[in-house]
């Protein structure tokens, strides 16, 4: 079926929905990028890998709050609106960043500092569990049918921009502060900045307009809005979101948040070089998202998802093996870029695909909860599983694990129906056929 003629691109809605997402993910990823400096602040002195394993464990625990956040905030977004949910999530993220910034070290308060760190990560997990769906639904619903892939791709543009800000700040601090100062107190600076930035975005998001799609549906239906009972009527879509997210989120976190640690802890590159590699590949990756999203508006979503699934299944093991012996900046940059080009087939359109699967009155919950479950099980544990394999002396086992999960998602992509022309409201000139057959 041919793509519908695109309408005008709503840049105000895209910017408004994305800028908050940028700050949310800056705070979320800055934990991972600065963990190499604060790992020793919250745990007893000892093996550096063991300290990283502890901080990665807290990172993973934060992901297990995502299903709770997906349920509570997804329901909130369906019942109270996308704008209200976006405002709430960024408020929670500001508070959690501030908690990390002031958390006492192990030398000062023993394990109490680690408990504060854990509480902050749980709050962040709760917030991000709802942010993903609220942002995805807002960007998609606020955009004409022929532009949805392009517009929703800015979710990963903003996510990546947030990570780039974190990495850029890390590189700046690495060149302006001594290693001792960074390990002592310098790592707190990005969390203070994150808390202040979130406060600014909170003000900006209060001026967003609610989507017309949500307002129109609100007048038609309210009884079962955002309930688990209603979501279970769409259990096929629920399971589909879990399966199609599985390989994508694991590959994404492998080649983004874990990459800096992998290059320094396994490939043996200096921390400054590893950070610079991550910054460069993420910048290019960010620029690819709108191009791939726009392409999906022309050729459909499935071709891009299938290209990711096949590429990740076949290339992960050789790429990670080669990265382990990357001798310098150039080799690490090229190999990492290949991995993220492959991942673009998933990241650029996964949000819009999920939104297109569900009706308006349960859309945010339908996107949030299954995505959060899959992210908790696979994306959030990526670093922990990778470091566990490394500590056990079986690091190559992690490469095969990523490839196997991508293969499972590939199977789903092959057998699912195209969602590009799914109607978000009954008023849209689009087929009403069920976009799921798995």
From TrEMBL:
The keyword Transcription regulation does not apply. The keyword Cell division does not apply. It holds the Pfam family MFS_1. Gene3D superfamilies: MFS general substrate transporter like domains. Keywords: Cell membrane, Membrane, Symport, Transmembrane, Transmembrane helix, Transport. It is a multi-pass membrane protein. It comes from the Bacteria. The chain crosses the membrane at residues 21-40, 52-73, 85-103, 109-133, 154-173, 185-204, 238-255, 275-292, 304-323, 329-353, 365-386, 398-416. InterPro entries: H+-coupled_symporters (IPR051084), MFS (IPR011701), MFS_dom (IPR020846), MFS_trans_sf (IPR036259), Sugar_transporter_CS (IPR005829). PROSITE patterns: MFS, SUGAR_TRANSPORT_1, SUGAR_TRANSPORT_2. Residues 13-420 form the Major facilitator superfamily (MFS) profile domain. It is found in: Cell membrane. PANTHER family: ALPHA-KETOGLUTARATE PERMEASE, PROLINE_BETAINE TRANSPORTER. Belongs to the major facilitator superfamily. Metabolite:H+ Symporter (MHS) family (TC 2.A.1.6) family. This is MFS transporter. It comes from Actinomadura yumaensis. The lineage of its organism: Bacteria, Bacillati, Actinomycetota, Actinomycetes, Streptosporangiales.
């Amino acid at each position: 079926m041919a793509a519908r003629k695109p309408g005008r691109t709503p840049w105000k809605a895209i910017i408004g929905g994305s800028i908050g997402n940028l700050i949310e993910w800056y705070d979320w990823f800055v934990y991972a990028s600065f963990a190499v400096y604060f790992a020793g602040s919250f745990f007893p002195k000892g093996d550096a890998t063991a300290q990283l394993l502890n901080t990665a464990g807290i990172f993973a625990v934060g992901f297990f709050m995502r299903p709770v956040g997906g349920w509570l905030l997804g329901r909130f977004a369906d019942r109270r609106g996308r704008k209200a949910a976006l405002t709430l999530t960024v408020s929670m993220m500001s508070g959690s960043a501030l908690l990390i910034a002031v958390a006492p070290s192990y030398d000062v308060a023993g394990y109490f500092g680690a408990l504060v760190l854990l509480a902050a990560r749980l709050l962040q997990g709760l917030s991000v569990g709802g942010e993903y769906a609220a942002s995805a639904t807002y960007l998609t619903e606020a955009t004409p049918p022929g532009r949805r892939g392009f517009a929703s791709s800015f979710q990963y543009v903003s996510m990546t921009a947030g990570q780039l800000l974190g990495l850029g700040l890390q590189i700046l601090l690495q060149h302006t502060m001594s290693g001792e100062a960074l390990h002592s107190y310098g790592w707190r600076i990005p969390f203070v900045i994150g808390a202040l930035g979130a406060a600014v975005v909170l003000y900006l998001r209060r001026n967003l307009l609610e989507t017309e799609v949500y307002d129109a549906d609100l007048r038609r239906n309210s009884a079962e809005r955002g309930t688990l009972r209603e979501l279970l009527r769409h259990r096929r879509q629920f399971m589909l979101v879990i399966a199609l997210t599985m390989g994508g989120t694991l590959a994404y976190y492998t080649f983004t948040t874990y990459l800096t640690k992998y290059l320094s802890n396994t490939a043996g590159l200096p921390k400054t070089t590893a950070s610079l590699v991550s910054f460069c590949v993420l910048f290019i990756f960010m620029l690819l998202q709108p191009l791939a999203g726009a392409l999906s508006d022309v050729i459909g979503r499935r071709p891009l998802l299938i290209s990711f699934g096949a590429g990740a299944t076949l290339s992960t093991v050789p790429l990670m093996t080669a990265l382990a012996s990357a001798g310098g900046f150039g080799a690490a940059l090229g190999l990492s870029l290949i991995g993220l080009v492959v991942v673009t087939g998933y990241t650029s359109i996964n949000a819009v695909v999920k939104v297109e699967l569900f009706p308006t009155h349960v859309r945010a919950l339908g996107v949030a909860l299954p995505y959060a479950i899959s992210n908790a099980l696979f994306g959030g544990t990526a670093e922990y599983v990778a470091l566990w394999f490394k500590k056990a002396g079986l690091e190559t086992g992690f490469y095969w694990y990523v490839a196997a999960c991508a293969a499972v998602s590939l199977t789903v992509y092959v057998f699912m129906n195209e969602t590009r022309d799914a109607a978000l409201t009954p008023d849209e000139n689009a087929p009403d056929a069920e976009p799921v057959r798995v």
